Amino acid sequence: xxxxxxxxxxxxxxxxxxxxxxxxxxxxxxxxxxxxxxxxxxxxxxxxxxxxxxxxxxxxxxxxxxxxxxxxxxxxxxxxxxxxxxxxxxxxxxxxxxxxxxxxxxxxxxxxxxxxxxxxxxxxxxxxxxxxxxxxxxxxxxxxxxxxxxxxxxxxxxxxxxxxxxxxxxxxxxxxxxxxxxxxxxxxxxxxxxxxxxxxxxxxxxxxxxxxxxxxxxxxxxxxxxxxxxxxxxxxxxxxxxxxxxxxxxxxxxxxxxxxxxx
Length: 263
Description:
Layout: E1 11-13, H1 16-24, E2 31-34, E3 49-50, H2 59-64, E4 69-73, H3 79-86, E5 94-98, H4 105-116, H5 123-139, E6 149-154, H6 168-174, E7 178-180, E8 209-213, H7 224-230, E9 235-239, H8 241-245, H9 250-262
Parallel strand pairs: 1-2, 1-4, 2-3, 4-5, 6-7, 6-8, 8-9
């Protein structure tokens, strides 16, 4: 059986960035399920059924939608969710696992999804355009000639939580020589990738920039003074978490946003 003889795919995306990527590649008409956090493209996702969140997927509803493929991410989805889907036996869809850990990994991600759905109308052309856009954004976002800044990127409050240096966010920031603290790697998966702070760490005095991300915790202006007390030698700013942490087609937007932040 050739690719053209196969029935059209029924795609479920359990990751906001991947949902946006599906549409960017021209596969939106095949999307049958998404999470409630999958909000882009805003003018098109409304027609796609919601199946809970990234961590609390409504498996019964997802199964009723009979996807042929489920797109997941190592950081954003739970292994228990994947195990439960695979336990459907003959009804189990193909699980497509993604794990971009650096902005440059988006080129591999585009190839991965394009390969999975090879033969879909317009996919090759859309993938080529997206690769070119990403490659240009990566080439124009460099650290040469930029000063090194020590930065704390906060993603949660009470307790304070930040990012390890081998996360996507940290590696994106490093492209303009903004180096995140603490100086730790979190490994391929797990809680260590997003360290919790006590507020008593000695290195907090070394921080010169604090970014309060708009997601997953929705930091507000009211948190700026509190974060300033945490890092008394730093400038504190609210930043767009979608721009700095979403991957796929959002990466080009994020890199442009990052260059604007640097000034």
